[in-house]
Structures are given as structure tokens and as C-alpha cells.
Specification:
Blueprint (H helix, E strand, L loop, with lengths): L5 E12 L3 H8 L2 H7 L6 E8 L6 E8 L5 E11 L3 E10 L2 E15 L2 E13 L5 H21 L5
Antiparallel strand pairs: 1-7, 2-3, 3-4, 4-5, 5-6, 6-7
Length: about 160
């Protein structure tokens, strides 16, 4: 390929949940919890090939529309502060085509009896294969799913 391009963008998506920062953090820290909400919605599949939630660990996540192309996200955890912050760096491919590299920060802060989540992704979108608006829509859908998952699960004792 010749003449590749890079589009740099910062995406910020915020949500406030009626759940403690501990519960929201727990939803990010286990593969079982992630699989309950970490997909765009109906008609999408999601699976983890690898999951090691610790600084220096990482994950390999495959997802896509059922019957369509598969996307592969490979991330490494740069910083984890329980119940407060998760920072990961990674790349995304569509099948074998690289489409982005990014740093994702998830900030959790108490908000009344709940939690305010601010997700910031600083991304380099490659060769017009992906777009910031697509990524924002994906994060928005997944964080809405997280809200529904938190509502449907009983609070821990």
C-alpha cells in the first residue's frame, strides 16, 4: 500500500450510573462481566481469546456483526487503580487490516450514590479504514449496555 493516511482524534464518552465505582470497576475487570455488556447490541458477536487484567497484562477481543467481518482488538494494560482508573493501549484490525491504534482511559468517580464514568480514547485512525464517529457510536452503545447490565444485576451485599 502507498500513500497511507492517519486521522488523529480524541473521543470522550461520559455516563453516570446508579451503581458504585466498585461495581462499575468490577464490570471491566473480569471476562465474565465484560461479556455481559461489551458488544454493540443484538446481531453482534463478541469473544475474548485472552484476558489478563493487570498492569502489564492485556486482552485479545474479537467482535463483529453476526455473519460479517470480524474485528480484533489487542490491548495491554498500562495503569490500573482499582475503582478509579483503567488505562490501556492497543490496536484494532478488521480481519487482517490494521484500522487504528489508541490509548483508552476509563475514569471512575463517585457521583452521589452512583458513579460517573468518563472514557477518553486518543486514537490514530489508519488509511480511512475507521472513523472517529464509528468509534464514538460503538463506545456509546457499549456504555449503554453497561448501564443496562448494572441495572439488571443485584448490588453486592
Amino acid at each position: 500500500m502507498t500513500g497511507g493516511s492517519v486521522n488523529h482524534a480524541t473521543i470522550i464518552v461520559e455516563r453516570t450510573y446508579d451503581a458504585s465505582p466498585e461495581r462499575v470497576f468490577a464490570a471491566w475487570s473480569s471476562v465474565e462481566a465484560l461479556l455481559r455488556w461489551n458488544a454493540m447490541g443484538d446481531g453482534w458477536h463478541a469473544a475474548y481469546d485472552h484476558f489478563d487484567f493487570r498492569v502489564g497484562g492485556g486482552d485479545i477481543f474479537r467482535f463483529g456483526k453476526t455473519g460479517g467481518e470480524t474485528y480484533i482488538s489487542t490491548s495491554s494494560y498500562q495503569d490500573i487503580v482499582p475503582n478509579e482508573r483503567i488505562i490501556s493501549a492497543g490496536t484494532m484490525r478488521r480481519e487482517t487490516t490494521p484500522i487504528s491504534s489508541s490509548i483508552v482511559t476509563v475514569d471512575l468517580t463517585p457521583s452521589g450514590k452512583g458513579c460517573r464514568l468518563v472514557l477518553t480514547e486518543q486514537a490514530a485512525f489508519l488509511d480511512d479504514e475507521d472513523k472517529p464517529e464509528y468509534r464514538r457510536a460503538g463506545w456509546s452503545a457499549m456504555l449503554d449496555n453497561l448501564g443496562e447490565a448494572l441495572k439488571s444485576q443485584a448490588a453486592p451485599a
